Amino acid sequence: MYIAVKGGEQAILNSWRLLAEKRRGDARHAELSLAQIREQLGLAVDRVMVEGSLYDPELAALAIKQAQGDLIEAVFLLRAYRTTLPRLGVSLPIDTGTMRLERRISAIYKDVPGGQVLGATYDYTQRLLDFQLAVANAGPPTAAQESVQSMPPAPRVTDIMGGEGLLAPETPTPGDPVPRDLTREPMEFPADRALRLQNLARGDEGFLLALGYSSQRGYGNTHPFAGEIRQGMVIVEVEPEELGFPVEIGEIEITECQMVNQFAGSASMLPQFTRGYGLTFGACERKAMAMALVDRSLRAEELGETVTAPAQMQEFVLYHSDNVEASGFVQHLKLPHYVDFQSELELVRKLRARHAAHATVSLSPSAGAEAA
Amino acid sequence: MAATETVEGYNFAYLDEHTKRMIRRAILKAIAIPGYQVPFGSREMPLPYGWGTGGIQVTAAVIGPDDVLKVIDQGSDDTTNAVNIRRFFARTTGVKTTERTLEATIIQTRHRIPETPLRDGQILVYQVPIPEMLRWLEPREAETRKMHALSEYGAMHVKLYEDIARHGYIAATYDYPVIVNERYLMRPSPIPKFDNPKMHMNPALQLFGAGREKRIYAVPPYTAVRSLDFEDHPFETQHWDHACELCGAADSFLDEVIMDDRGTRMFVCSDSEYCLSRREKQQPAVA
User: Fold this and answer.
1) Does A340 touch chain B if contact means CB atoms closer than 8 Å?
2) Could you give the CA distance from residue B118 to residue B202 in angstroms, rounded to a whole number?
3) Using CB atoms, which residue from A8, A84, A340 is nearest to B190?
4) pTM score, whole prediction
5) Alpha-carbon dihedral of residues B255, B260, B261, B264, nearest 10 degrees?
6) Chain B from 67 to 106: CB within 8 A of any A CB
7) CA nearest to A227, candidates A284, A269, A289
8) Which contacts qualify for A241-247: CB closer than 8 Å, 24 or more apart?
9) What would the pLDDT profile of A61-78 be if each residue is shown by its tens digit?
10) Is the confidence metric ipTM above 0.95 for this complex?
11) What chain B residue is nearest to A352 in terms of C-alpha separation?
12) Nearest Cα to A317, choosing from A285, A347, A344, A293?
């Protein structure tokens, strides 16, 4: 005899306990500390901060620990916390030109004022598994003396280029309106660039990487060059109304990428270079570069280019970039759908019955006249 | 049902009061323009998108300490998602929860309208995955908004006509398109078309929340809701050759349950509370 399913509540509570046990793993090994995650899994922390839209390495480390290293789940946890925080104020725009540089690369000039600074990068590591790391207590490594700690600020490559008029200037929208806040207001189309960049900055790295890549393979080519990638610390300032002057509240680590793209010109614009822009918290260079490619692709309409490829389509990109939204909706398929499925079952049975009836009818020679 | 211990450090019903006010404004606008999708600043919720974040935000915005809440998924109070959402509100509000349709002041639902007729003063909150009825015909939001503004619903009629040309009838069984108040084409969240007639002239306020898509829409009490059809192909609901094998109801939506590995099937009410209360009436001794 069938008995309607009961006991969902107990099952959920049991599942929580089981999850806690799985998260801890084999108790013979030491438990991870947040400091270990923050210090030794820094790039994971950076990704969770940028896609979680909250600069807080400690909380990001907690989210990573709680999510057992599932970074999208960690982003979700951080976002769900962020949404409950009050807005105390808005900082002044950061000036990336004054960045305390840790890395700075330009692919369009052999040398630039301030120089090329390789910094800490996986680019030239040759990707051989380092079995030394498998052995604990190897002692802390030390960087060479001329490490980048004392690098003076260097001008942005794109600012140096601007002089000749070869590079389209980026100026604030007339009146410099306050940008809309995606986390407080719904997206509207057409979305202006500030809104698009906000969406991309929160967007999933994998999604942007694939879209940027697709633009390089011919789906809306933007002829990009990495004008400059810079990573380092910038100062954040606020200007409390009652004081009337800016106050420094701290430093954050960011990565900025400015792609320089060929532009053939149009009826109203001379041929010149245009820009795609990427900005992330922490050292998320791959994401910053992909973001810059997609940003430039999304400017197709404004620059009078024909929109043909997914990377150029605002609604396609901006509605599908968010991994918390995507992950939730894809995984909601786990929820019961028996009512819809029951309706479909009935329909498919009906359609099959009709097909079968047709097949039988067409076998008899006199059926032709009845076919309508 | 006794309220679970409430969590500390969060406002009543989780959302802060400013957010609730913003959502209530959207709800009021939605009620004023029946069937129109109002964009709203949907918040990130501690439950995943696609699992009812829109319905949860609507419920959180309208619920008060004296409300009695019922949550169903697929008609049942006992599916894990319904249990989870009910627990969420029990923890964040401390309100009384119930499984009785008649006792509830707010009913949050996914995919069904209860079989027991609703009454004046009740609020039915639907969880909506995709609010746009025209989405499968036109993927661009900018376009579909224009189509609604111009009441340009020809594409939907053509789709239904094509179904009839191909199959002999309209091959839509759930998410069946409706016109609200003879103006806006509305997606009834994915309820089976069996439930569509219940929306028409319903005494309860029907609110629809789509969190991921950031839209709220509404059918005010006693509003006309017409399922699209043609004169020679009138709208029909599903029929079963069976009655519920537990309570004997012949008027309810039935779920098919597979009983063994030889394909033995059994049909039972999808609305578990309706089924149980019928059985209790038949056999008052059943605890």
Assistant:
1) yes
2) 7
3) A340
4) 0.89
5) -60
6) 73-76, 78-84, 87
7) A289
8) A246/A92
9) 999 999 999 999 999 999
10) no
11) B167
12) A293
